[in-house]
Amino acid sequence: MEEVEVVVAHTQRATLRVGDVFLKVDGDPAHADIEVRAMDLAPIPTPPILWRRPPVLAIAAVPGQALGILGEPSAASPAAWAAAGAAVRKLHEAPLPPWPGPRLDDVAADLDRECAWLLTHAVLPAEVIRRNRAIAGAALRPWQPAFIHGDLQITHVFVDGDEVTGVIDWSEAAPGDAMFDLATLTLGHEERLDDLLAGYGADADRDLIRAWWSLRSLGAARWLIEHGFDPDAPGCEFDVLRSRMREP
Q1: pTM for this one?
Q2: Which end of the chain is more exposed for a tag (fewer CB within 10 A), N or C?
Q3: What is the fold of 64-246?
Q4: What b-and-e string marks burial along 144-171, b requiring 16 or more CB atoms within 10 Å of the CB?
């Protein structure tokens, strides 16, 4: 009998693994709608969809290992990171998906709201929050929309040797800022940015990637805390925010 592994679970969704099948249970059918459509449109490897019976989406496991996990050094080779960069570039150059992406005004309003919550609850020193809010401001400008994954965490990119075998979890895919994907993939792994950009291309804006590191970490902290995750674990979001204090 196959064991049932709980991959992730919180009040919004849960993902279970049974053998080589992942069962994604989501109370909002719109998330699965976007995931299915995005995987169909994406020009890079994605997991096969086995079946869908709302609220459950069943997908097959992809071969290989995740590029890494947040809070631990990535064991993937520089060539694997470069291959990931090339895959992300191919995605960003693909035709835009036909649904709306994040609005700049909404991103700015969400950032201000999350910073206010962090200050009120004193989960970090005020100077850390204010310093990162200032850095994050650079990302709040009109962007040329690209086809982005939208949640390109390091655990969502799988490689086998130096080859990308699949990218998972597409429910946040939309037209958006390409630098957001690059920042999300290297969050907490800033030392691998050069490897990633070796495959993506040298025209990536490092200052904007740096701004999105701050913005994503500020924006995610409350959700993580309220859903039982720890942004203060070593190498995670709070360490990313604290590291900005060491910069000129």
Answers
A1: 0.96
A2: C
A3: Aminoglycoside 3'-phosphotransferase; Chain: A, domain 2 (3.90.1200)
A4: ebbbbbbbbbbebbbbeeeebbbbbbbb
